[in-house]
């Protein structure tokens, strides 16, 4: 029989082992000194004597602490088999179970993505372990469920647990915050508002996280005004807004494109003594980039630096990506150099945006230099960067070099995606190597990305352009057999192929089928132009006019190609020929009546380029619409930018 002193010594050794394990240390002290000498550390598992030697002291025995340490140790290492054994042993020895040990286990289940086990253990607590759960345990399990995205189940767990008979669970503010998060994630914002209004009645006044959760839910449902009004209510109720609250609203306004109100909120932040942080600036910069206001985004970056708010790679990456999308790859490179000079690390996504932008800007040599520089700096390319390089090489008409990069990509453990292969296929089609593109598709049949609709669209478009309608039809049937629904590009490509083959009736049938599809498969201006051109070539001008009317009814605006089709038809197919000025003038008026100002202005631009001046009354309507204060200022700003360039 071990003495109490000896048992205490072994217990100290065990705690040392657990602490070392939890802190990630690979070793622990090789010697532990006690009053009676040194005792070497004991290997796991510990002997039964360690738990049975200490005398009982009330409802707590010395061995209980050892069990608690074991629970922490196994939970931290996600050793659930050992955890189960410890719990079973504690039951056999009638040990005391405390709630904090279960909370540790619940958190471990959460990290291991095991919500079912957490719920099961929660329900077993009172009967099997004689430990009555409180709101602390309940919140832990509820959070585990929500973290896995099981929002319906979280609500069910709440109703079953809180509303159950003989429950010891009284919801607190954290409970309601988790509940509101689930409800908002499900899009039930009105229900969330009801729960929010009930909180004070349950003696749980909302805190800043409650308001932020509800604001975020309202913003995601495009109810920005209600979210902003909550900010005022929040302050009236004595809950001071934090950066999180302001950032949620600013993000919602930026996504909506209301940058003016977002800027006012930033001013409000300053008035409240809440200085904008990194997230605030990044959100505003992202919003400006979405609106194409890159110059203002760069100015805001300078303001951010002058305010002692340090930009990060997200800040620079957002602006660089925005500049690239505007075709300003050289400006993006200058910002990239500035970023490096300031000591910021560049991630793979910045490199991919720059490489892609330089290729699109016909700066292939600069793109390849950047690729080499990235490799020399030890920045390991990922799938996105490899795909950008492959796409760029294919744009340059170098699919063989791109194929070599693909092999290198696979050798380095990067898995190509549908974009990677579709870029390579475009490259082969562009160089006239149709056979190689089809062979690539056949080689990829065992890969999941072969069933991606983008991949099918590229293949069908390339085959139809090459005049291989029969092979395109084979791919079309293969796509349908695999349950992959065609998008607008695939439909338009097939319609183009059928029109080129003289099968106009079949093309119109496919077009009518397209009208019955989902939004992403609805015809766009390209689809209409294909059919309008085919109808006009066959002198079916009245049918073409009917199709144009249908196009306008479906809120699809004509473009320059549409105008050119009808101008050519009126000039070449009618006797006597017409200049088409009257036709386009009437089209402008029809668009104005439908309040489609942008589409009308595009046609006016075509008329001016073709020296077909609009009627005086039409011109008056155009000027009246364009001369609104905001639009005048926008035009002036654009002129100044052009002068600066």
TrEMBL record:
The keyword Transmembrane helix does not apply. The keyword Cell membrane does not apply. Pfam families: PPR (PF01535), PPR_1 (PF12854), PPR_2 (PF13041). It comes from the Eukaryota. Signal peptide: none annotated. PPR repeats lie at residues 172-206, 207-241, 242-276, 277-311, 312-346, 347-381, 382-416, 417-451, 452-486, 487-521, 524-558. Keywords: Repeat. PANTHER family: PENTATRICOPEPTIDE REPEAT-CONTAINING PROTEIN 3, MITOCHONDRIAL (PTHR47941). Belongs to the PPR family. P subfamily. This is Pentatricopeptide repeat-containing protein At4g20090. The gene is LOC111308502.
């Amino acid at each position: 029989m071990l003495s109490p002193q000896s048992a205490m010594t072994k217990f100290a050794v065990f705690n040392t082992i657990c602490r070392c394990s939890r802190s990630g240390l690979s070793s622990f002290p090789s010697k532990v000194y006690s009053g009676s000498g040194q005792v070497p550390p004991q290997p796991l598992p510990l002997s039964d004597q360690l738990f049975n030697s200490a005398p009982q002291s009330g409802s707590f025995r010395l061995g209980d602490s050892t069990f608690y340490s074991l629970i922490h140790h196994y939970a931290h290492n996600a050793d659930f088999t050992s955890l189960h054994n410890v719990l079973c042993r504690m039951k056999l020895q009638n040990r005391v179970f405390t709630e904090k040990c279960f909370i540790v286990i619940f958190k471990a289940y959460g990290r291991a993505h095991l919500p079912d086990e957490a719920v099961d253990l929660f329900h077993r607590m009172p009967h099997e372990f004689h430990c009555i759960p409180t709101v602390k345990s309940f919140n832990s399990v509820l959070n585990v469920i929500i973290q896995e995205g099981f929002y319906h189940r979280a609500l069910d767990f709440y109703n079953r647990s809180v509303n159950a008979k003989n429950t010891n669970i009284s919801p607190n503010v954290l409970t309601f915050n988790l509940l509101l998060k689930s409800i908002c994630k499900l899009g039930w914002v009105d229900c969330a508002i009801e729960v929010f209004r009930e909180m004070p009645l349950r003696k749980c006044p909302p805190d800043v996280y409650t308001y932020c959760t509800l604001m975020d839910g309202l913003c995601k449902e495009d109810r920005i005004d209600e979210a902003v009004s909550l900010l005022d209510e929040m302050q009236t109720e004595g809950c001071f807004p934090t950066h999180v609250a302001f950032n949620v609203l600013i993000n919602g306004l930026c996504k909506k494109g209301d940058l003016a109100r977002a800027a006012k909120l930033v001013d409000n932040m300053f008035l409240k003594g809440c200085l904008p942080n990194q997230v605030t600036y990044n959100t505003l910069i992202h919003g400006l980039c979405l609106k194409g206001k890159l110059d203002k985004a760069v100015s805001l970056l300078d303001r951010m630096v002058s305010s002692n708010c340090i930009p990060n790679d997200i800040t620079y990456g957002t602006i660089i990506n925005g500049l690239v999308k505007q075709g300003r790859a050289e400006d993006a490179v200058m910002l990239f150099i500035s970023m490096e000079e300031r000591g910021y690390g560049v991630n793979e996504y910045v490199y991919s945006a720059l490489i892609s932008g330089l290729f699109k800007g016909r700066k292939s040599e600069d793109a390849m230099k950047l690729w080499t520089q990235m490799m020399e700096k030890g920045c390991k390319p990922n799938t996105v960067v490899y795909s950008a390089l492959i796409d760029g090489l294919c744009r340059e008409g170098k699919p063989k070099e791109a194929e070599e990069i693909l092999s290198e990509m696979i050798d380095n453990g990067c898995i190509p995606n549908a974009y990677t292969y579709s870029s390579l296929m475009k490259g082969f089609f562009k160089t006239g190597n149709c056979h190689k593109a089809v062979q690539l598709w056949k080689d990829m049949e065992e890969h999941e990305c072969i069933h991606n609709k983008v991949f099918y669209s590229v293949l069908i478009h390339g085959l139809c352009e090459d005049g291989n309608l029969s092979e395109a039809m084979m791919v079309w049937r293969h796509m349908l057999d695999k349950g992959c629904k065609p998008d607008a590009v695939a439909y338009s490509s097939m319609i183009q192929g059928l029109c080129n083959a003289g099968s106009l009736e079949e093309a119109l049938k496919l077009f009518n089928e397209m009208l019955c599809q989902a939004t992403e498969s609805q015809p766009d201006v390209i689809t209409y132009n294909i059919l309008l051109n085919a109808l006009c070539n066959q002198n079916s001008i009245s049918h073409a006019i009917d199709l144009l009317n249908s196009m306008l009814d479906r809120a699809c605006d004509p473009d320059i190609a549409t105008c050119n089709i009808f101008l050519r038809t009126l000039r070449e197919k009618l006797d006597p020929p017409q200049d088409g000025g009257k036709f386009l003038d009437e089209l402008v008026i029809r668009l104005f009546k439908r309040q489609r100002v942008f589409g009308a202005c595009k046609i006016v631009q075509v008329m001016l380029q073709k020296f077909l001046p609009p009627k005086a009354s039409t011109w008056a309507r155009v000027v009246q619409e364009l001369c609104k204060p905001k639009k005048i200022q926008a035009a002036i700003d654009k002129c100044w930018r052009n002068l600066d360039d």
